[in-house]
Design a protein that fits this description.
The protein has helices spanning 4-10, 24-35, 54-63, 69-72, 88-101, 114-122, 128-152, 166-173, 203-206, 212-218; strands at residues 46-51, 75-82, 156-157, 179-188. It has a four-stranded antiparallel β-sheet with strand order 1-2-4-3, sandwiched between helices. The longest helix has 25 residues, at 128-152. It has two domains: 4-87 and 125-218, NADH Oxidase, CATH 3.40.109; 96-121, no CATH class. It is of the alpha+beta class. Helix content is 46%, strand content 12%. Bound molecules: flavin mononucleotide. Flavin mononucleotide is lined by residues 12-13, 15, 67, 158-162, 198. Residues 12-13, 15, 67, 158-162, 198 line the site of flavin mononucleotide.
Length: 219
């Protein structure tokens, strides 16, 4: 298996897949990598649906703006964010789990203060619109774990976030709307040449320079 660093360097978005099947234990290992991802307050708001059926892959390809490689890939993992993980019931259960597992003993700063924690838990659950960003952000972390594990196992993937309408995915599988489709990940063996790395911004460009000295001078 590749190291994390090797997988990061070698991963590419692959949009052409061989028909060879992907063994179930590899898919399970990818799901295990996703399961281990970190999440804010350990909410783990991710859910995954593994599709092998060609007809369903074809329908997913159609929903994802006709991206043909979704049908070609032998396995497609549909990734959902789960709003239910933010409900009051889920929150109370999680709090108990943290106490039982001893996680609360490792808290630090204000999170180690029982009064502060009681206050946090007394706050109302935010409306759904305000939960979209945390649901998607946390689920994306798990998805990238899954994608890197695929690479480590010699498999190829492509993140797909372009859907006609996410609700169509829920309809296709008869799922409740507390599950929000956030990405579709075709998985398989790359067909043909592996493309060279796609360009990335140089380090200087992604480093932000503090501006407080400049701001101070203006005064
Ligand atoms: C959130 C997200 C959504 C994406 N959606 C699509 C998509 O719908 N179709 C597609 O072909 N590629 C999609 N991509 C892949 C990007 O185009 C790709 O990661 C980027 O061009 C860099 O190429 P690389 O992955 O080979 O390094 C998506 C990537 C991300 C992270």
């Amino acid at each position: 298996m590749l190291t994390v660093w090797e997988a990061m360097k070698m991963r590419r978005s692959i949009r052409k897949f061989a028909p060879d099947d992907v063994p179930e234990d590899m898919v399970n290992q990818m799901l295990e990598a996703a399961r281990l991802a970190p999440s804010a307050s350990n909410r783990q708001p991710w859910r995954f649906l593994v599709v092998r059926d060609r007809e369903i892959r074809k329908q997913l390809s159609h929903i994802c703006l006709g991206q043909q490689f979704i049908e070609e890939a032998p396995v497609v993992i549909v990734c959902f964010g789960d709003f239910e993980r933010y409900s009051d019931t889920a929150r109370k259960k999680r709090r108990q789990e943290s106490v039982d597992s001893g996680v609360t003993n490792t808290a630090s700063g204000r999170f180690a203060d029982p009064e502060f924690i009681a206050y946090v838990y007394s706050l109302p659950v935010p409306p759904r619109e305000q939960l979209v960003t945390p649901v998607v952000a946390n689920t994306y972390i798990a998805i990238e774990h899954l994608v890197l594990m695929a690479m480590a196992l010699g498999l190829s993937t492509c993140w797909v976030g372009a859907f006609e309408d996410p609700a169509e995915i829920n309809r296709l599988f008869g799922l409740v709307d507390t599950l929000l489709p956030v990405a579709v990940i075709p998985v398989g063996y790359a067909a043909g040449e592996i493309p060279p790395p796609r360009p990335r911004l140089p380090l200087e460009e992604i480093l932000v320079k503090p501006q407080m000295h400049a701001a101070g001078k203006e005064k």
